[in-house]
Amino acid sequence: ELKELDPKKELDWLDCQMVENQKNYQIWHHRKLIIEKLNDPSHEKAVLKDVFFDEPKNFHAWSHRIWMIRRFNNVEGEFDFIEDMLTDDVKNNSVWNYRFFLVQFVNNNKIDKNIVEQEIKYAIEKIKFCPVNECPFCYIRGFITKFGFKYSDFICVKEELEKIVGENKNNRFALMLLMDIYEEEKNGR
After folding, report:
1. Under 8 Å CB-to-CB from 73, ≥6 apart: which residues?
2. Which own/partner contact pairs does 50-56 have at CB distance under 8 Å and 24+ positions apart?
3. Are 136 and 99 in contact (CB under 8 A)?
């Protein structure tokens, strides 16, 4: 049935439909089929920007963005986009998850110690900005544990967390991550 559709007109129709139905997965699936048929994702980042303006945690929109990046390898400006989104809401877990994906994607899933260290530094800067935000703590934990590193490989994490706890003994996110570090030290892993 798609053979008989004018893909550009269909995309225009979808743009209108998405305003009211952006959480409808069928709209996103249909959109993906049209973009595949056109083999042109150039319109998508602008559409997604509008969707994220209305609903910055829209699961379908984030899934669509990941699909678009994977399918078309269109990473230009993505880290700037992430920075803008985190400036708007540093607690948006969807953006943190997207950054986790993007770092792996641009590095072909070859994550070495230098990349992890860079991402830890990034997360620590965000923690300094908002120390009661769970996202960057999970981000650090994710990069260290997923790629087979130990906390002891990154001494700066423990040092920064101890500073944070020194300033706020009730920061449960820092305390939980410190517990993981202390557990590793205790077990000599």
Report:
1. none
2. 51/18, 51/22, 52/85, 54/22, 55/22, 55/23, 56/85, 56/88, 56/89, 56/92, 56/94, 56/95
3. no
Looking at residue 4, its pLDDT comes to 80
Count the residues in the chain: 189
Provide the 3-class DSSP secondary structure of residue 6.
Answer: coil
pLDDT tens across 46-73, in order? 999 999 999 999 999 999 999 999 999 9
Question: How far, in Å, CA of 71 to CA of 19, rounded?
Answer: 24
What's the pTM? 0.94
Alpha-carbon distance values, 64 to 54, 130, 150, 153, 154 (Å):
16, 29, 33, 35, 34
Which residue is associated with the tokens 């959109």?
31
Instruction: State the average pLDDT over residues 95-112.
Output: 98
